[in-house]
Amino acid sequence: MKKAVIAMAAAAAGLASTAAHADTFARAANEITNLVVTSSHGATAGLSVNSSFASACLPNGNCTSKGGAGVTDSAPAKLGWAGYVNNSYDSNAASGTSYAVADASIDQLQLSGAPYTRARSFTEGNLVGAGTLNAVAGNSSATLLTTTVVAGAGDKLSFHFDALPYIQVYLTDKAIAPSQAQGSIGLNFNLIDNSGKIVFNWAPDGIAGDIQGGTETADPYTLNTSLTALNGNGGPLTFAPTSCTVGGAGCFSASTNALAAGVYTLNLAMHENIAVQSAVPEADTYAMLLAGLGIMGVVARRRGRCSPAVSP
């Protein structure tokens, strides 16, 4: 019995050690490239107001934020991974330490005569031990457009772009409930008239025709989705569609309905988020377990004293 008690105590200590090193990982990234916005009647574009932003947080309230309004290439927000290089969008999944990184950039050239617009954002984090970490990165752009009416035909805007989204989340076998890892991506276009009314909204979701104020001609997979790894379904879970041929005619395509003459604001918004939570048993749980083992030890000793002598 004494040996059994010792073995159980050792197992409890091992559980504590293992749980304290539970790993949870999440990565979410997207690249919107070859984005071309064209006008059927030559809408003129004013200056764009751009924002590229990144933030990252580790447990205990340790956070950092970079970029913001007027920034087209945010410096990376990074904690625990000093070696991350700006705009590399590399992964550090093999790391054995906790870290959180976010990075974003946008080349805002829409309707300015340049070849295309590219926007990239990336978040990744790994948590060793208990706590919560998160990271968010994204880009936004607001461009003023002036449309005209030619021979009674309203102006139309057409959108074509390629996308390279990626999400991966997982828990190692050391993670215990309620640990979880979540990654999400999002992309949205909208056109707002001078009164503030949204006349066009497009958030690609992989369902052809699901669009407001326009026509969608190509939507091969969703760009607004998330994955969550939980105990019992720890993954790795991965979203990495490969049906987009980058550099073609544009995997994603849509156009607005005919627009009345006037001034509009064209908005592009994208984001990548990760949120990772890892847990270990509460201290009082360990105390109760060890107390129980102690009681078992006392009972074992009493049984030993009360056992009848055995005659030789």
From TrEMBL:
Pfam families (alphabetical): PEP-CTERM
Superkingdom of the source species: Bacteria
Signal peptide interval: 1-22
This protein's record includes keyword Signal: yes
Presence of keyword Acetylation: no
Keywords: Signal
InterPro entries on file: EDSA_1-like, Ice-binding_C
Domain Ice-binding protein C-terminal: from-to ranges: 279-303
Protein name as catalogued: Ice-binding protein C-terminal domain-containing protein
UniProt source species: Duganella violaceipulchra
